[in-house]
Amino acid sequence: MQRKIRPAENPPLQEQAGKHRQPPPKRRTRALQAVAGTGALSRGTGAFPPIFQYNATPDLPQSKGNAMKLIILDRDGVINQDRDDFVKSVDEWIPVEGSMDAVAFLTQAGYTVAVATNQSGIGRKYFTVQNLTEMHAKMHRLVRQAGGEINGIWFCPHTDADNCNCRKPKPGMIEDIIGRFNAQASETWLVGDSLRDLQAIDAVGGKPALVLTGKGKKTLSQHGHELPEHTQVFDTLLDFSQYIMQENTAPQAD
């Protein structure tokens, strides 16, 4: 079910794009690459500390022609069930009901689907990049079984203390994804369950969508007045995907 909210009286902060930029520490980058297992792990661009990318396919697609239709998804609480003590292992990674079908619907509607997720549990040493790689391999497998595709996963392993540019609500990951896929920021959706998710896409002029799974209900009740203007609210990712499909099939006015 789609829900609409009134425009925010006080727009959220949009001046959080990385003001603190330094060359990434090479030693830290190599260490994370060393524990990446079979996942493709690479350094992001133009931010300190670096943005990391993971995808389970050898080649991450990149558009060189027309702009791609892009939807960015938060992970915990949107695609999979969230936990107060972090999702730390492949066994703890459990899909939200209907989320695999939702990604399949978005794929079949012609959208490129990417994931942008804060994973400070790595920086806090609650789990490793290898654990994360295993979770994402499971996610890819289940999405493909449903007939969908996740074209890339961006994650931030840092804590707030790192003052990086990739941890949402800062827009580093979002900017990197949009640039990678040659998408138009103004036409790009981000679906999340937290205020910081929505602030990250709003900072680049994109389309915010809040789902009420995960922390979504709490976000709406506690931060409803802070949500970016034009935020659209849906019960689940599946409801969002059905809305997108209806939008794509609606007759266009002459």
From TrEMBL:
<dbReference type="InterPro" id="IPR006543">
    <property type="entry name" value="Histidinol-phos"/>
</dbReference>
<dbReference type="InterPro" id="IPR004446">
    <property type="entry name" value="Heptose_bisP_phosphatase"/>
</dbReference>
<keyword id="KW-0119">Carbohydrate metabolism</keyword>
<comment type="pathway">
    <text>Nucleotide-sugar biosynthesis; ADP-L-glycero-beta-D-manno-heptose biosynthesis; ADP-L-glycero-beta-D-manno-heptose from D-glycero-beta-D-manno-heptose 7-phosphate: step 2/4.</text>
</comment>
<dbReference type="InterPro" id="IPR023214">
    <property type="entry name" value="HAD_sf"/>
</dbReference>
<dbReference type="Pfam" id="PF00702">
    <property type="entry name" value="Hydrolase"/>
</dbReference>
<protein>
    <recommendedName>
        <fullName>D-glycero-beta-D-manno-heptose-1,7-bisphosphate 7-phosphatase</fullName>
        <ecNumber>3.1.3.82</ecNumber>
    </recommendedName>
</protein>
<feature type="region of interest" description="Disordered">
    <location>
        <begin position="1"/>
        <end position="30"/>
    </location>
</feature>
<keyword id="KW-0862">Zinc</keyword>
<keyword id="KW-0378">Hydrolase</keyword>
<feature type="compositionally biased region" description="Basic residues">
    <location>
        <begin position="19"/>
        <end position="30"/>
    </location>
</feature>
<keyword id="KW-0460">Magnesium</keyword>
<dbReference type="GO" id="GO:0005737">
    <property type="term" value="C:cytoplasm"/>
</dbReference>
<comment type="pathway">
    <text>Bacterial outer membrane biogenesis; LOS core biosynthesis.</text>
</comment>
<dbReference type="InterPro" id="IPR036412">
    <property type="entry name" value="HAD-like_sf"/>
</dbReference>
<comment type="similarity">
    <text>Belongs to the GmhB family.</text>
</comment>
<dbReference type="InterPro" id="IPR006549">
    <property type="entry name" value="HAD-SF_hydro_IIIA"/>
</dbReference>
<dbReference type="GO" id="GO:0005975">
    <property type="term" value="P:carbohydrate metabolic process"/>
</dbReference>
<comment type="subunit">
    <text>Monomer.</text>
</comment>
<dbReference type="GO" id="GO:0034200">
    <property type="term" value="F:D-glycero-beta-D-manno-heptose 1,7-bisphosphate 7-phosphatase activity"/>
</dbReference>
<keyword id="KW-0479">Metal-binding</keyword>
<keyword id="KW-0963">Cytoplasm</keyword>
<dbReference type="GO" id="GO:0046872">
    <property type="term" value="F:metal ion binding"/>
</dbReference>
